[in-house]
């Protein structure tokens, strides 16, 4: 289930070509579905256009690896929120409770796994960025590949700085012993490097791809992530600028909110960026995404393990009649829109419907839900970022237009529910936008960091154990501090 322990802070594996090739060979979904390759020695790699393609494809494949989407990601990016709790049985993966109640220590394994997973992704990106320029290949494709790597590197660094604050910034493969063991970079410098990567990526990446390459990073993805990065820094003019650009690129809201998250509608016109996954017949090892399996309906054949479950607090957050409640939460005893009957008995009363894959699609010997893509950025979030930025800049008219577009799709032609927001006073409209973010993006790993960036964590998360001045960031893994011989320092309060 999990990869071997690798210490990426002190000893980054500069040439992981056997692993990289294996991952590229096992990827699914169009451009990721390539034939098996032999284990090519690293010194013979980075010679041809085909090598460059394998290297870039491996970047995407690694995005759905265990450390990227497994327990560590849920622990760091979801379980601290008031929308979710551990789930499953009390004794099953009991260590995850430490993230529910903010008692996780620097020695907690999930913190180390998340840290290592992001630096593994950064390392794959840096291999591409450092080596592809020297390959004699199609110039336009080379430029695009570099832009794709910069986008994914920005995404990994965004996850790191959001979770830990100051983190070591790695923009190239280490060449000397001193470059393996580096100190934490101030968060402001990390944010700047992320923005530079996204600026460079957006100038190169195409608006769309042909079917065979659908799922790769696009111009819209780079602009949208840049808007999100700017939002975390309260750079509202930039948020408005980037989201306004995205709103001109042809994205649309998918009419049926519940169906948006089903496999047939992956990479729909609302999708800005998704992590691609696929069940590949005859290759269970390559069908390796466990995102859906971890959160699936427990005690149900074809369901899953039952972790990261919605809370009563989230249930109560929806306005009366909001269809998004039942599209986001599977309740015990219900019949899903896909005609699955969920058992009325069990340890958990609710499950994440956005990660749900119909039970009938389960293939024995494969991970439940291995076909399910992971939605990273949707156009609905772009509209809500646009609304928040417009309101902060005093443009209530534009803020209401973007906010109400999301509510219009949510009610999907129904009357008497989710009326348009009409309030124009800045604080009241801000609160309306924040509420909309909560219910629109519920169970998509944003709520926890949203309330922190909004300055509301002590109020919202305090009852769960959040401590002001400490829990705005997670602890730096103690293992990484130890192997750095003290070059890395710990966050306050840990």
Fill in the keyword field for this structure.
globular, 5% strand, two-stranded antiparallel ribbon, 21 helices, Serine Threonine Protein Phosphatase 5, Tetratricopeptide repeat, 494 residues, mainly alpha, disordered N terminus
Tally of helical runs:
21
Output the strand order for the largest sheet: 1-3
User: What is the 3D shape?
Assistant: globular
Low-confidence sequence ranges: 1-28, 33-38
Q: Which structural class is indicated by helix and strand composition? A: mainly alpha
N-to-C series of helices and strands: HHHHEHHHHHHHHEHEHHEEEHHHHHH
Number of strands: 6
Oligomer: single chain
Report the biggest beta sheet as strand number plus sense, adding barrel if it closes.
2 strands, antiparallel
Supply Rg: 22 Å
Mean pLDDT: 92
Q: Under the CATH scheme, which class of one domain?
A: Mainly Alpha
Strand content: under 5%
Portion in helices: 40-55%
At the fold tier of CATH, the topology name of one domain is Serine Threonine Protein Phosphatase 5, Tetratricopeptide repeat
Please give the CATH architecture of one domain.
Alpha Horseshoe
Distance between the termini: 29 Å
Explain what you see.
There is one protein chain. By secondary structure, this protein is mostly helical. Among the domains are: 7-204 and 468-486, Serine Threonine Protein Phosphatase 5, Tetratricopeptide repeat (Alpha Horseshoe); 291-372, no CATH class. 44% of the residues lie in helices and 5% in strands. It has 21 helices and 6 strands. The protein has helices spanning 17-26, 49-62, 66-69, 71-77, 97-100, 109-131, 139-164, 177-180, 187-202, 219-232, 236-246, 257-260, 291-295, 312-315, 323-328, 379-392, 396-411, 426-440, 447-453, 457-461, 478-483, and strands spanning 84-87, 271-275, 307-310, 329-331, 350-352, 374-378. The strands form 3 sheets. A two-stranded antiparallel ribbon has the order 1-3. Strands 2-6 form a two-stranded antiparallel sheet. Helix 1 crosses helix 2 (49-62) and helix 6 (109-131) runs antiparallel to helix 7 (139-164). It is globular, with a radius of gyration of 22 Å.
């Amino acid at each position: 289930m999990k990869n071997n322990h690798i210490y990426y802070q002190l000893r980054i594996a500069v040439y992981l070509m056997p692993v990289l090739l294996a991952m590229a060979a096992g990827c699914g979904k169009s451009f990721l579905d390539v034939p098996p390759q032999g284990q090519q020695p690293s010194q013979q790699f980075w010679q041809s256009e085909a090598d460059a393609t394998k290297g870039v494809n491996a970047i995407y494949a690694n995005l759905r690896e265990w450390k990227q989407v497994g327990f560590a990601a849920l622990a760091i990016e979801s379980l601290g929120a008031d929308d979710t709790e551990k789930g499953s049985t009390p004794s099953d993966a009991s260590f995850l409770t430490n993230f529910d109640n903010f008692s996780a220590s620097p020695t907690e394994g999930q913190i180390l796994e998340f840290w290592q997973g992001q630096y593994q992704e950064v390392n794959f990106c840096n291999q591409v960025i450092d080596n592809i320029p020297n390959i004699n290949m199609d110039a336009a494709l080379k430029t695009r590949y570099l832009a794709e790597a910069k986008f994914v590197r920005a995404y990994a660094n965004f996850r790191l700085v959001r979770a830990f604050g100051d983190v070591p910034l790695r923009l190239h493969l280490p060449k000397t012993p001193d470059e393996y063991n580096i100190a934490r970079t101030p968060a402001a410098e990390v944010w700047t490097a992320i923005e530079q990567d996204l600026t460079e990526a957006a100038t190169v990446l195409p608006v769309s791809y042909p079917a065979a390459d659908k799922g790769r990073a696009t111009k819209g993805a780079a602009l949208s992530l840049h808007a999100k990065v700017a939002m975390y820094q309260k750079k509202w003019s930039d948020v408005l600028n980037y989201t306004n650009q995205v709103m001109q690129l042809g994205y649309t809201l998918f009419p049926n909110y519940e169906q948006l998250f089903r496999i047939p509608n992956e990479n729909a016109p609302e999708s800005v960026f998704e992590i691609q996954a696929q069940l590949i017949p005859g290759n269970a090892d390559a069908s390796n995404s466990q995102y859906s399996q971890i959160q699936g309906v427990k005690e149900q054949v074809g369901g899953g393990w039952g972790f990261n479950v919605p809370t009563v607090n989230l249930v109560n957050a929806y306005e009366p009649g909001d269809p998004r409640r039942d599209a986001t939460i599977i309740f015990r005893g219900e019949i899903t829109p896909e005609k699955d009957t969920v058992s009325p008995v069990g340890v958990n009363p609710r499950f994440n419907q956005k990660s749900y894959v119909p039970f009938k699609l389960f293939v024995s010997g494969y991970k439940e839900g291995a076909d399910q893509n992971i939605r990273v950025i949707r156009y609905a979030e772009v509209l809500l970022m646009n609304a928040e930025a417009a309101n902060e800049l005093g443009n209530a008219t534009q803020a209401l237009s973007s906010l109400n577009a999301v509510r219009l799709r949510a009610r999907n032609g129904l009357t008497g529910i989710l009326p348009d927001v009409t309030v124009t006073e800045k604080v009241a409209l801000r609160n309306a936008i924040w509420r909309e973010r909560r219910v629109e993006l519920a169970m998509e790993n944003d709520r926890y960091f949203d309330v922190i960036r909004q300055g509301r964590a002590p109020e919202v998360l305090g009852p769960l154990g959040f401590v002001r001045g400490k829990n705005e960031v997670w602890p730096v893994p103690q293992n990484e501090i130890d192997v750095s011989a003290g070059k890395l320092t710990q966050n306050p309060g840990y």
